[in-house]
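User: Fold this; tokens only.

Assistant: Input:
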Amino acid sequence: MADNIIERVLEFANRRLDAAAIELTNALKETLSVPVPRLVKGKWTKGQGQFQRPVIYRTSAGKSVLVARALPDAPPRKFEGTFRQRQTWERRTSGAGDLVRRVGTNDKRAREFEEGTHPYMEPTLARVRPLLERILGQGV
């Protein structure tokens, strides 16, 4: 009987943690979805917010494109979408049986962005913290 109750509590906790991790991952992807303005035929495409001086960016296909960088303290802009796509979450358990969810990316640029001029994780976490607390507190 006690084992069944413990299993049910752990299953419930895992569902809530999964839901919170998914919500935070989606919020990160939304934060990283601001398109970068590009110069096309002498005119800037629509991009949200202000931006810095233009720079030449080489795409993964090898094409050079003139784009505008994000302002300092703004999240990185979406150009090809690979950085946004690499935002993910995973289940981890420690040796003590703790329930852990890791949210983030394996992209090498993440640390440079977060610790440099384009933080995106901390501001996003602060923005969705109330929602995450509600998700984790459901049914308690």
